Amino acid sequence: MTRRLLGAAALCLACACATNAWAQGFDTSAGNLLALLRESPGNNRPEEKLDPIGLVRAQLADGREVDIDASWFQYLGDMHVRLVFDGEASMQTASPGDLERLHLSPQDAVTQAVDNMRRRYGAPRVQPYGGGLMQVVAAEPDLVSSYFLDRALWQDQLHRYPQGVVASVPLRGGLLFAPADDEKALTNLRFSAAALFTASDRTRVSSALYLFKDGRWSVFQAPRL
Q1: What are the helix and strand counts (H, E) for the chain?
Q2: End-to-end distance of the chain based on CA atoms, in angstroms?
Q3: Confidence tier at 24 by pLDDT (50, 70, 90)
């Protein structure tokens, strides 16, 4: 079943209005955390790092605007990470207070979220996409981009491609990669990534390309600014 991944305003509304998250039907335990990747237009962070975004302004259904403190973190390139609690049909954003209550650092929370995603929705699968590219697919299509955060997946790819892999996360349901030493495949990746990003206005994630090597991500091709 493809879930409805709520946008910023709806996620913030859930957080701002839930004085008792359990009453809202959300399990706010560490075992229910997920991590989402979203676009940060205009950013270009060359190395991985989780820095709190701080207060986020959102418009409620009645038109009012509120500032809430969400567990959102600038991450890499033009992407940020949002930590949320999973629900049956929607998600509720986690707050810094939630991470403090759960005794989780931001990195520990992301690691926990990836473990939760694998347990609940299964491990990702890799299949040919064409043109020398590979595609990551998963049981929950809207969470495909979150597998960018799955270290085990990418460490496995390094066994096949010791020179590293270059990946694109153009949209929430799209995650492509190519061997870093295959110039023809990289040309195809650039073309495919740009086309998917441009065509995905409401679900786009990143316009950059990323290199995974030596156990970490870095920007391989800068995002569009």
Answers
A1: 5, 13
A2: 35
A3: low
DSSP assignment letter at 224:
P
50 and 37 Cβ atoms separated by less than 8 Å: no
Measured CA distances, 196 to 106, 146, 164 (Å): 30, 17, 23
Q: Which amino acid is at 162?
A: P
The pLDDT of 128-153, averaged and rounded, is 97
Model pLDDT for residues 185-211, shown as the tens digit of each residue: 999 999 999 999 999 888 999 999 999
Coil, strand, or helix at residue 109?
helix
**Could you give the CA distance from residue 202 to residue 199 in angstroms, rounded to a whole number?**
9
Q: Which long-range contacts (CB under 8 A, 24 or more apart) does 151-160 make?
A: 151/114, 151/215, 153/123, 153/124, 153/126, 154/212, 155/215, 157/126, 157/212, 158/212, 158/213, 158/215
Structure tokens given for 147: 């597998």
User: How would residue 6 be classed by pLDDT, with cut points 50, 70 and 90?
Assistant: very low
Q: Which residue has the tokens 């991944």?
A: 5
At 26, the amino acid letter reads F
Q: Which amino acid is at 101?
A: R
